[in-house]
Amino acid sequence: MPDSSSLPGDQAKKLVIVGDTAFAQIACEYFSFDSPYEVVAFSVERSFLKQTELDGKPVVPFEDLERHFAPSEHSVYVAATYTQLNRLRKRLMLSAKARGYGLASYVSSRAFVWRNVKLGEHCFIFEHNVVQPFVEIGDNVVLWSGNHIGHHSKIRDHVFIASHVVISGFVDLGASCFVGVNATFANNINVGADCLIGAGATILKDVPPAQLFGASMTQTRDKSPLDYFRVPPDQR
Length: 236
Hints:
The chain is of the alpha/beta class and 236 residues long. It has 2 domains: 4-103, Rossmann fold (3-Layer(aba) Sandwich); 105-209, Hexapeptide repeat proteins (UDP N-Acetylglucosamine Acyltransferase, domain 1), CATH 2.160.10.10. The chain is 14% helix and 28% strand. It is globular and about 50 Å long.
């Protein structure tokens, strides 16, 4: 993957990162030095605008983005983690897309992604991920560093997977799930949408939607992940 720092200014793709958190700064670093994109600005919703500059780049209101950066010339990546069980990232991504912006993805040059993997739009895949043959990854998925995604598995839209997760073959992970560090999934498992799979959890059988698991399959929590992540009623 070409390094944007080596491309002339008129060849590098212009990118606005939506967000001003640590993830936004991390995304800026990766896009700037391991992708064909040139990060030109950050953007946040007006009610969250606390600064006008970050890392030497302007921070502009998301509502006014077109006034500063034309959709025809810029792409967007929404650098939000799993806030509201991934709904915030989803909402801002869909808003940018509806306004005509291209949606950027990042795949680390140090990730192993097999040639026939199907990858959706607006994804972020960190270093040392192993994504095996025939895997399907939906839109708006984040794979933090060091995960194993086994052959023929499906990661549905708007999922966030933290580090060092092992997903075996033929796993179907439902939309908007959050998976914590070091979780493990046996093969041939279906996991419903909106699940929170906690750090270190071991999942050995199918999981219904909207379940919250601790460190083992037997530790189901009564609280819904939708409540845990304070998902607004109109986004459930």
